[in-house]
UniProtKB/TrEMBL annotation:
Homotrimer. SUPFAM superfamilies: Galactose-binding domain-like (SSF49785). It is found in: Secreted. This is Fucolectin-5. GO terms for molecular function: fucose binding; metal ion binding. One of its GO terms (cellular component) is extracellular region. Residues 6-153, 159-308 form the Fucolectin tachylectin-4 pentraxin-1 domain.
Length: 308
């Protein structure tokens, strides 16, 4: 197994935050390795109400960052962090708050740690910015995880097909004479045989918005997905399919980021698609939007490496 994490590279690093004469000393509390969430324990930052408060950690060097974890205050006021932005880059323009936006905090439970994962991004500065008037920014720990240059190269090159190690399911199984030949698991059997009647393809009922989903069991960083289309008939049925990758099961995985939208794969052909940027996720969903659609896949290959 490849472990991409270089450890928490923010631990004990140099920190800064918005000017606050009463609380300037608290910035380093977010990288002390202590996830205590009661402000009275002196392990959280605190910036009194002001416009666009921010907090920043300066890493020892630029890293290829793939995840930031934030621990929220637990003794009160959990919603104060709602709307916070995580920004990463190598610029100190506007105190680092003009660097690339990688994630937003929409909601976080009191005293909990939330992980934000994204494609490898080069940066030495990680900012937590809270836009708005009269905002109070408190974080109890900020962890930053990175990968090596070699791992980035492997992710971008292709990696290995990790799909056969997963578990597959789909919106339905064709109820006709081919039902026993159309199971979801057929798409990850390592066989690109494209004749449905040979027992190596999937097929759903004709229905609204059919889908097929792969559970990789753990999170992977994925750069490329390959789909093999049915070859004995009906090749056009796969036109318009959308591949989603992420850690959410909302809407059967269709709420996760899009890797690719398939316009056409020839009958019996294999289309290999590189995501616009490497995506992290446990679930790979192939969705076919529309009414009266039938989804059939003869092989799904997912190329990536474990994220954790």
């Amino acid at each position: 197994m490849l472990n991409l994490n270089a450890g928490n590279v923010a631990l004990k690093s140099v920190t800064h935050q918005s000017i606050d004469l009463l609380n300037s000393y608290t910035a380093s509390n977010a990288v002390d390795g202590n996830k205590a969430t009661n402000l009275a324990n002196n392990s959280c930052t605190y910036i009194t109400a002001k416009r666009n408060p921010w907090w920043r950690v300066t890493l020892q060097q630029p890293y290829k960052i793939v995840m930031v974890a934030i621990t929220n205050r637990g003794d009160c006021c959990a919603d104060r962090i709602d709307g916070a932005e995580i920004r990463i880059g190598n610029s100190l323009d506007n105190d680092g708050n003009h660097n690339q936006l990688v994630a937003k905090v929409y909601s976080m439970r009191a005293g909990k740690t939330q992980k934000f994962k994204f494609s490898p991004l080069d940066g030495q500065y990680v900012n937590v910015l809270l836009p708005g008037e009269n905002r109070i920014l408190t974080v109890c720990e900020v962890e930053v995880y990175a990968v090596s240059e070699d791992m980035v190269a492997m992710i971008q090159s292709e990696g290995i097909n990790v799909a056969p190690n997963g578990r597959a399911t789909q919106s339905s199984v064709n109820q006709g004479s081919t039902a026993c030949l159309s199971l979801a698991q057929n798409a990850i059997d390592g066989n690109r045989q494209y004749d449905l009647f040979k027992g190596s393809c999937t097929q759903t009922n004709t229905e609204s918005d059919p889908w097929w989903r792969l559970d990789l069991v753990k999170t992977y960083t994925i750069a490329t997905v390959a789909l093999t289309n049915r070859g004995d008939c009906c090749a056009e049925q796969l036109n318009g399919a959308v591949v989603h990758i992420g850690d959410s099961l909302e809407s059967e995985g269709r709420a996760n980021p899009v890797c690719v939208k398939v316009s056409f794969i020839p009958a019996g052909g294999t289309g290999k698609f590189r995501c616009d940027s490497a995506l992290q996720g446990r679930y790979v969903t192939v969705a076919l939007p529309g009414e009266n659609r039938t989804l059939s896949l003869c092989e799904v290959e997912v190329f990536g490496v474990p994220t954790e």
